[in-house]
Amino acid sequence: MVSSNTIDGSGALKKGALNGIRVVDVSRALAGPFTTMLMGDLGADVIKLEMPGTGDESRYWGPPFATYMSSNRNKRSAEVDLHTDEGRNICLDLIRNADVLVENFRPGTMRRFKLDYETVAKIKPDLIYCSISAYGQTGPMSHRPGIDLMVQAVSGLMSQTGEPDGRAMKAGGPIADIVGGFSAVVSIMASLMERRETGRGRYIDIAMLDALMMVLNQQIVTYTATGKPYARVGNAHPLMAPYESFPASDREFVMAVTNEKAWKAFISIPEFAHLDEVPEFKAQVDRNINRVKMLEEIYRVFRAKPAEYWLAELDKRGIPSEPILTLPEVVSHPHIKERGSLMEIEYPPGSGTRVVIPGMPWRDVAAPRIQRDPPGLGQHTREVLEELYGPGGIKAAG
Amino acid sequence: MVSSNTIDGSGALKKGALNGIRVVDVSRALAGPFTTMLMGDLGADVIKLEMPGTGDESRYWGPPFATYMSSNRNKRSAEVDLHTDEGRNICLDLIRNADVLVENFRPGTMRRFKLDYETVAKIKPDLIYCSISAYGQTGPMSHRPGIDLMVQAVSGLMSQTGEPDGRAMKAGGPIADIVGGFSAVVSIMASLMERRETGRGRYIDIAMLDALMMVLNQQIVTYTATGKPYARVGNAHPLMAPYESFPASDREFVMAVTNEKAWKAFISIPEFAHLDEVPEFKAQVDRNINRVKMLEEIYRVFRAKPAEYWLAELDKRGIPSEPILTLPEVVSHPHIKERGSLMEIEYPPGSGTRVVIPGMPWRDVAAPRIQRDPPGLGQHTREVLEELYGPGGIKAAG
């Protein structure tokens, strides 16, 4: 299975843990492409099949086409029209030579293409076939359109995000897609490991909703154990205070006073010494009860000086605190630079335009890192078809 | 490696893809336990080592102890004191018989226990050793305390969440822990697959910060490609409108009008027919420019009737929309019930008290589902030590 992999001087795989695994990727937009990107990062050969002439719809979201660019490194693109017999046959031939198929169409679409699991498993019984959708392949909501905002609303996450007296808010990134994608990768890798024992393939049904609910593990257990709905707490901690975000004179920062010792350290900051004399703030239980009054006073003091001053005072005392960084600050942060957490890709292909992108979320795993920039539409159609049919064996679809 | 696994009638593994893999888990609180729980869900034998008498600190966060309950199914608990020579030797003996070690102490702590990778790899060169921390093992921030709120602040996610004119908000769940945990599982499984080829172990360094930045992929690419910071947009879409959350007379819901066809469908709702005559709302580009005025009018109309009415009208016209559900609504939702997305655990052990918890975020993967409820502190100390040393070979630590 890992035939073309070799071992380098340190005893590690040169091309990554998934080298030798071929993925036929008919997914578009986000959760599917994110899944196959992680597999490509780990060395899999990901062949992205796209509609001739148009391709993945996310190619058009922009400029600067950030969704496409950030989800499609380490793949090859081939234009194949699944609506035609010729395209469908190419897809089936690719599947015969592949290990994994990933799709994230609306449930039922792959059946219309006659590429549903039952059909495909007949010609390739050891295929791992992963369907990703907003709400899963079964259940009364399965047919509904899958947009990250909708899944955040239905999961309960929005109801838990935002100011207690404000609107329910979405998290500021497509976390249903991302957590759904991670769930897909884990389950595909588990199925590849299983296949080594059994020789059998699998059908995997990933619902972004199921994955996103794991972010609400604690709230769901709290509600079902107590029968009491978990109120939206904004940036605060439901059991501890002060533990949230605060305004300095110039910017916001977060701080967590997690126990009595930390509270003593906090009121050793000269500007907060007067809080020691307030009986309503003596014990943590008092501070929770009198939270509003306490926070008003803390806000008032913090607002008088810049964040840098407060963060230094808190740091000295071992109280966890950090500034709330903007994206420009994140991208230029010395820590993130030193860790090499960000990588560069070129896009469009051949343009010489290099863009910074978050890299793989692990260090020192056998991974080829970025071997390929996000491909142009159909950039590898000829290469993929010649691998399949030999030189001149078939004209490129589209 | 999968010696005790057997194949069931359908050709699948009975005990899960990771059956035969043993995980020594010295992690506490959230990202680490979440990682090992997913591995236990897939059939790994996870042995959770806990400080005698006290154990994982999350056992005390409550009642109802939701963090502990939702992160520790499918594990065994053994009380072992890593501060003593006896405990350290038990840990090393377990490692000799294990495949994976997971820890999420502050960087440097495992070295103080003389259980750092360099030391452990000498006695077990094929161990996969995974360290999870807030900011990673390297870089100027590596020593800083790792709380989900802090990582959300530093990642840039908070600056992207919340009302444009309000405070930066955290997402309403510990998503740095969850995405960090998923990253850890993927990298451990990749390293297990690699080990089959090379026979070698690996050291993996997971930073919750690196993982969480992937949620900001699109914003980071947009910023680095254009040089323009990506403004916080609340619940809105940066390029399309109306595409956000709206208030009905009784509750909030989300709606996405994604193109001209959808806009035509939207203004075919009788209450919105008058918008067709407003020149400022004609094309998508106009609606973006005149967004505030348009949204004010849409809000005014939506506020007059209940969400159920609007959702039915939108549904009829194929416009994506969903109510923003509360947790009680999520837990009792017919779709989630039909999919079996929630499971039950008993906790405390033997109490007969059953609590609902989100299950595994995949369907039909070879997984043993919930085989074990979250263990009591030291519930399996004797069992684990007898497996290691034989009956009566050593007295249970603690």
From TrEMBL, chains A, B:
Keyword Transferase: yes
Keywords from the named record: Transferase
GO MF annotations in UniProt: CoA-transferase activity
Keyword flag Transport: no
Record's signal peptide: none
Name of a matching Pfam family: CoA_transf_3
Protein name: Formyl-CoA transferase/CoA:oxalate CoA-transferase
Organism this protein belongs to: Chelatococcus asaccharovorans
Lineage of origin: Bacteria, Pseudomonadati, Pseudomonadota, Alphaproteobacteria, Hyphomicrobiales
